[in-house]
Fold Fur family transcriptional regulator, ferric uptake regulator.
Amino acid sequence: MEDRIDRIKKQLHTAGYKLTPQREATVRVLLEHEEDHLSAEDVYLLVKEKSPEIGLATVYRTLELLTELKIVDKINFGDGVSRYDLRKEGAAHFHHHLVCIECGSVAEIQEDLLEEVEEIVERDWKFKIKDHRLTFHGICYRCQQKHAEEQNQKE
């Protein structure tokens, strides 16, 4: 984790910012909960456990800065809540998500599924793509299994 914090510190420094204790607390929470797709409020509550003096506005400002610098991606799964996801190091693109419309679980696909689509869009529409996001909304395997079990019990 310390290596990753050092690299983020360098990214901030290159952009003219410092890794203040408040920013570091926020980054540490994001690193510790990398798979959780936390909202700003979630991040704030976790930061507050470690550093009670840090306010919600500071966490919001830090998340927005990290988003601007492409250290963090701000995502919305259609429920009106922005969530923050650390960008994988060296990733050319944002990763894809599978969102279960029943239980709300979120799975990630690290593989870039849109390379061919990007080539077509750039060629046919003369549109230079910088990034893309893909979210599939459906029913996860666990919920499908639950439905199948419920159906079997009715029969």
